[in-house]
Amino acid sequence: MTNLPLWFIPLFPLIGCILLGSIALVSSDSKKGPSEGFVGALSVLFPALAFACVVLLSVNMPEGGIRATLCNWIDIPMLKVDVGFLFDSLSRIMLLFVTGIGTLIAIYSIGYMHGDRGFARFFAYINLFLFSMIVLVLSDSLLLTFLGWEGVGLCSYLLIGFWNHDINNCKAANKAFIVNRVGDIGFLFGMLLLCTLGGSGILNYDSLNHFINMIMGSGNAEIVVPILSVVGICFFVGCTGKSAQIPLLTWLPDAMAGPTPVSALIHAATMVTSGVYLLARLSTLFVQIPLVLDIITWVGLLTAFWAAVAGLFQNDIKKVLAYSTVSQLGYMFMAAGVAAFDSSIFHVFTHAFFKAALFLGAGAVIHSLAGEQDMRKMGGLLKKTPVTACVMIFAFLAIVGFPGFAGFWSKDLILERLYMSGPMGPFFYVVGLLTAVITAVYMGRLIVMTFFGSYRGSKESEAHIHEAPATMLLPMVVLAFGAIFAGYLWADSIGVKFFEEMLAPVVGSAQQVLTHNAAHVNPMVFAGLGTLAALLGMGIAWAKYGKARIPEAKGSSAPQGKMATWTFFWDYVHGVVITVVNAVAWVVENCVDRLVQFVQWLVASIAEILGDGAAAFQVRKVRLQIALSIAGVVALMIVVLLTGGLI
Amino acid sequence: MLALIYFIILGVIAVGSALCVLLSKHPLYGALSLVVSMLSLAGIYGLLGSPFIGVVQIMVYAGAIIMLLTFVIMVLNAAKDGKTPMFDKVSLFVIPAALVLSGLVGFVLVRSGIAFDATAVRGSVKLTSETLFNVAQEGPGYFVLFEVIGLLLLSAMAAAVLMAKKRLGTDNEEDK
Amino acid sequence: MELQAIYVQVLALVIFAIGIIVAVSRRNIFFVLMGVELALNAVNLSFVGFSKTLPEDMSIAGQIVPLFTIAVAAAEACVGLAMVIMIFRNRESVDSNDFTNLKG
Amino acid sequence: MLLHLLVLAPFVAAILMVATSKEDPKSSSRLAFLFALAFFGMSIALIAGGNQATEAVEWFRIPGAKGPVYYYLYSHGLGAWMVFLSTGLSLVALITARNTTCKNYRNFAIGIFALMGAMNGTFLAADAVLFFFFFEAMVIPAAILMAGFGGKERSKAAMTFAIYTLVGSAPMMVALWYLISQADSSLLLSLAIALQNMPEGTQVAILVSFLLAFMVKTPVFPFHGWQAISYSEAPAPLSAILTGAMSKAGVFGFIAWVLPVFPMNTGLVNVMMWLGLVTAVYGALMALRATDSKKLLAFSSMGHLGLAVAGVFTLSEAMLPAVLVLLVAHGISAGAQFLLMGIGERMTGTRELDKLGGLARVTPVFGTLFGFVAVLALAIPGTAGFVGEFTVLLSIWDGVGPVPALVAGLCIILSAAYMLRFVQKVIFGEQKCEISGKRMTALEGSSIGVMGVLLLVFGMHPAFITNALQLFDEQAIENMARLAGEKPAVPTEQDEIVPSSIPGVDAEVDDSLASVAEPYTEEDLDSLKVNLKANGFTEEEIANLVEQLKAMQLEDSAEADAAEPADAVEGGNK
Q: Domain B1-80 maps to which CATH number in 3.40.50.1820, 3.40.50.10420, 1.10.230.10, 1.20.120.1200?
């Protein structure tokens, strides 16, 4: 089985997508729609097959990874790119949890999407997403990664706008796609710059690393570094778009308009982390350009802090989780910014479990409350939906970094690396720790408002509250286990370094380029401080929201006043840009186009007036006209004779 | 010398009858003057050494076209229209213009200095028919053109019949 | 004094001018037709006259073309007279000024 | 033979269509489908057949010209693909028009066939006068169809269209006449030779009048006045052909007639490139504000073609295949969008964006297709549009610099914005209008679906398009030289005219694998050098760096040689 071709992995979801898409299309005219059991089985089968392939391949993966060039893709002068796959330890990790969580969420969705008219369509999109994500992770060149990169953006668009009869969902979807497009252009320009720098060959990751090492080794680093920095910034812009970092982060909270499994799969676990993946993939490039790394750290820091604070103000359960995702992504970027790519990937890994579990739990809550998302109308669900509550509480403990849970290990590691990263390290560390406290506060608020206290919704809706079906609970439980135990792959404090060693072939050499000799601090100190931060945050949350009366829910769940200003700050910034573009468009339509039209009209009218003037001679007098033409010939003759022609 | 005398005689007749056309009141007189003009022109053709054209001129023009014209004039009673003035304001404008034009052209012609070429071929029946109908010779030839002209005449005839048929029929019945 | 080529041309010119004058200045539609015939005749004469100024083979064309002109003139007279008849029945007039149907 | 058939047979087909019944669209549509299918098949055969030419037949002589005008058809990859577009779009247009213009389907089909013949002639003509003849002839059936089958303001639209395009190419006619009065014949080669002997001012004047005609046809920014109204008032199938195939005649003219013939001066090239970019931005901004769906599509295709024009005038090495892929992709996707919008207009009776909406729920198949095609038009990677746009961006960056490329990137963002707005307004949201007209039939849906699949296929394997590309091969040039009365061996002139000004003629480069594994070939070094220079390094530093790179490469290749057996062993183990 070791000879399993790599292209099997993306093939299965692709087949699934085509099959399900055809089923959806064929059955779209019938009233009832296709059998849900059949569609559900198909839709789980293909991601599961892909997962099985990944498992088989990763068990037998040789040290250097597997490379396979499938065929030629683009072959024109200046641009020769092949379709090729690269299966190494980095893509192995990513693929394992992408396909694994993808399968789980497909199972969950069978329950969640039950009875929806677009059942088959939904799963076609999910399979398409998995295909794109697998291509993104598995490809061996930037261009093919870009295929996946835009592909996941497209699926995100399709799934956010899944319930497309509501125009607001469509707007959220449009926003997600366009903001991502802005980032994608950054990615595109990065590729273009690389192409013009070293030919299209270096779009391949291996050749790129080779190229950079060679240029750096040649001793003329300072010539190339400015260009490489621009390249790095371009790619980073792409990452900020996809991973919702400042300034391109506004789309992610809005993206919660999609079905909850989508939020769990795409907007928490997999797609949004592809930016981190790209940073790790290009680690060889990034470690050569410390300036860009600094920018990344600062952006990550600001994003983490800002989103954590914004998370405090949300009343919508999914929005809280969305801001939490943004904040956690900020952590990952901070880690990448200090060249700790392995720990950022590790956080991606653990985060995928606990955030997916949180989202699925939130989905179960929303499902049981028949679509209610406002936390002010929840409360006391612990007794009514115990399994969901347990899963969410475990995941909560993981995200706040409670000792022993997955988040503890990864967040701890990041904070430690931040501290050690150089002169600014302690500052980064303090802000990171502060953010961790805020994280604990808003997550605690979520848990308290949802599961503790008494139910605050209407009486008649209380009777309908029920635990989610088994198809939904099973994946949640599995993910909860992941949220507890995934961290032990790299429990630094107790000396397990399995994850680090696994990633070493890909990012290890790059990380060694930037090593800082900061004073060695006992890791237990960091662990203790981290625990303290989590406990402090939980305490604040319990003290503030546990007893206090939650204000009556009125109006929309969006924050008001100063909170809104904070939350929507970047929306305002985007609004300015959009306004400018619209203003330019207005000017173009109303001034430039009018001007062009006017010139056109002017020419036409002049021609018309001249024509009318000429036509005035044309009236009803044939004989007169003949006479005139004779006179004209006479005049011509005279002119010719006088000017000396003919003679 | 003799040719010149003949030419002058014929030319004067031609121009004179042409002027008659211009000045005659009734179209019938005009048509008859036109016949005279045609005949004298046919004579000039013969004088110039193109007898075939002269014969055709007599046959087609004088014989056919003008006869047709006179026939129509006679059929239409109102052809002599007393109310229609012979000349009007436009005429006063046209006559000088045409005269000046011909004067100018004549001036240029006189200055151009053309002369007869002794080797010019006589346009006999034999030569004309050979030239017209020889399909074997190089170049486009006149044969196709000749056939096209035949078609043109046929279609003109058809058109004339179509246009005039109905009205003439009723008209004749009314007259009787 | 021999017959000169230019005499023929001058004669053609005079007849042409008279033809044009007849065609344009007379208002009776029959005279218009006759003027056109006159002008065509003048052109024929000019053709033949010019053809005689050319050497051997080149002089043939100028004597063939008048044949075609005559044929076309016949067609023209045919159609023209038919039209005259038609218009006359409609308008009861042979005054060309009454025939203006052209909208300007 | 194929070439003759493609150019002349459509006219014969148009005449044969007269024989069918005017009232009964059934019989006439069957015949029309049959013909269109046959032409489509021929166009595929043409692409598969590679470069081919007919015997040059002397057509007529223009007074004042030295040489005769030939009826001489020549098919290179570019023209063949354009013919593919024209026949393919005509086929689908005839299919969709079947349910739209029931009344007078026969006349519509006649017009479409005449248009197709003229377009094929334009794309295949190897003689400048023949090209011009067909270039002008295209306008007439298009304008007649527009006036006969269009919307409310159809006569105004047809008038604007005809006058604008005909007036636009009038200067070209004069310039062409002057050019062939100087050249030995009206074939490409002799035109180029004649141009070289002219004073600079005359050259520029002739060039500008050529450019003007093509700019109006494309259309490029200040000359786009006819476009929006024509595309929106014309019946949708016709708009699809107009934008998908006819507007390509402009870009085709730039590539096949301007670049090889004229010695370009940099100033003019830059102006054209910027005009293309301005067109792209302008089209995108106008599309962003359009309220009429067909106007939106019109401006969108204006934006794409602007990008293509900008790409052409970068004169970079990758320009030709890049632009060709972009053109084919745009032709198919814009054509499909117009056709779909036509079906939508038929169903709802309106094309105002504000009155449409919610079609995805009412007619899910239509909605799916609509969304699918819109996504393809967005140039998502994996579609032909992406390959085209990316490579055009690459050639812009490579040929001119980063600033124009940034502007082009802005267009790509804007295109996402307006296209998504379009999709949202038409198929998403609440349903605002009743479905009154005939729904999409299976034949229409599947034919448009096939267009979409084609885009995906070309996107994943653009070699289908780029491999066919060989603008002028040796034989054609020899042939032209022979006709022009020149000896075939005029090396200096040929060298200057043909390969240098048409970069990327040779598409047969199979060493792509090697170049991936070993990215530092001489070319790469050269391009690196140029780039470093552009970024402000001194000659000395560059030379230094290049030296070191070369040295390293030697070492590396030695290492690679050593490493290769190891790899092989590893592969065996797998």
A: 1.20.120.1200
Whether the link from the prior residue into A247 is cis, omega within 30° of 0, is yes
A 10 A CB-CB count for A225 gives 18
Segment C13-19 shows an average pLDDT of: 93
3-class DSSP state of D431: coil
Q: Lowest-confidence range among A145-154, A253-262, A620-629, B122-131?
A: A620-629
CATH number at residue C36: 1.10.287.3510
In a domain, D4, yes or no: no
- Cα distance between residue D314 and residue D405, in whole Å: 11
**Any idea which residue has 């010139």 for tokens?**
A599
D350 and D437 in a single domain? The answer is yes
Which of D471, D496, D524 delimits the end of a domain? D471
Measure the CA–CA gap between A64 and A508, rounded to whole angstroms.
13
Answer whether A634 sits within 8 Å of B101, measured CB to CB.
yes
Q: D462 and D524: one domain?
A: no
User: pLDDT tens for residues B23-65?
Assistant: 888 888 889 999 999 999 999 999 888 889 999 989 888 888 8
Nearest CA distance, B137 vs chain C (angstrom): 13
Chain A contact partners (≥3 CB pairs within 8 A): B, C, D
| B36–chain C Cβ distance below 8 A for any pair | no
Decide: D67 and D186 in contact? Cβ < 8 Å.
yes
Model pLDDT for residues A254-286, shown as the tens digit of each residue: 888 888 888 888 888 888 888 899 988 888 888
Which pTM was predicted? 0.78
Q: Is the pLDDT score of A35 beyond 50? A: yes
Which of the listed ranges A28-32, A102-106, A384-388, B108-112 does the model predict with the highest average pLDDT?
A102-106
Q: Do A615 and C104 touch (CB under 8 A)?
A: yes
pLDDT for the residue B151: 92
Report CB contact under 8 Å: C70, B56: yes
User: Is residue D467 domain-shared with residue D356, that is, in the same domain?
Assistant: yes
Is C69 near chain B, with CB under 8 Å? no
Question: Rg of the Cα trace of chain C?
Answer: 17
Number of domains in chain C: 1
Model confidence at D489: pLDDT above 80? no
Subunits in contact with chain D (3 or more CB pairs closer than 8 Å): A
Domain end call among D450, D471, D492: D471
What whole-number distance in Å separates Cα of residue A503 and Cα of residue A344? 11
Lowest mean pLDDT of A539-553, B147-161, D89-103, name the range: A539-553
Residues A295, A287: Cα–Cα separation, whole Å: 13
